[in-house]
Amino acid sequence: YYDFGTDDAIINKNLLYRHKQVREEVQNWFVYHIGTQRRCLILIDLLWAEAARLQDLPPDDLKAAADAKINSGKKNRIRIEQEHFLLNSSISYLRAKRLSNYLKHSEYKKYFWSKGLSKKKLEKLDKEWTEKLLARYN
């Protein structure tokens, strides 16, 4: 929510407008280059998995991503395997599996021994983040 009567609000409004312009330009470029699009999606998935593994993101963002990956996680893992086989030989099957398995860091765990995010741990992290934020403002 912005109070459009203040200078900060005008600056924020200008930043939002510039962000929208950049986003539209990137989207146009992104749509027309299919190979680049696939590789960018893979890179985004890998970066998100690394951020989830290191817990660099707020727990709410991790939860939202894990919820989205309930439906898209398998598709993303297949995409990275297909791209790996397209660019490399089929000899490196284990490397493709390792890369696709790495994406599981940003998904919910299916079993307690598997890679991924634990719902209980996310709740605990959420409480810790909330306490840190409240302590900063109190």
SSE string, helices as H and strands as E:
HHHHH
Structural class: mainly alpha
Overall pLDDT: 77
Q: What is the helix tally? A: 5
Uncertain stretches: 1-6
Strand content: under 5%
Global geometry: flat
What is the tally of beta strands? 0
User: Helical amount among residues, as a percent range?
Assistant: over 70%
Number of domains: 1
Termini separation (Å)? 22 Å
Task: Give me the Rg, rounded.
Answer: 19 Å
Main β sheet profile = none
Account of the 3D structure:
76% of the residues lie in helices and 0% in strands. It is an all-alpha fold and 138 residues long. It has one domain (33-137). Helix 2 (34-54) crosses helix 3 (59-87) and helix 3 (59-87) packs antiparallel against helix 4. The longest helix has 29 residues, at 59-87. The chain is flat, with a radius of gyration of 19 Å. The two termini are 22 Å apart. Mean pLDDT is 77; it is low at 1-6.
Set out the fold topology.
Elements: H1 7-32, H2 34-54, H3 59-87, H4 93-102, H5 119-137
Helix pairs in contact: 2-3, 3-4, 3-5
What's the gist of this structure?
This protein has helices spanning 7-32, 34-54, 59-87, 93-102, 119-137.
Using brief descriptors, characterize the structure shown.
138 residues; mainly alpha; flat
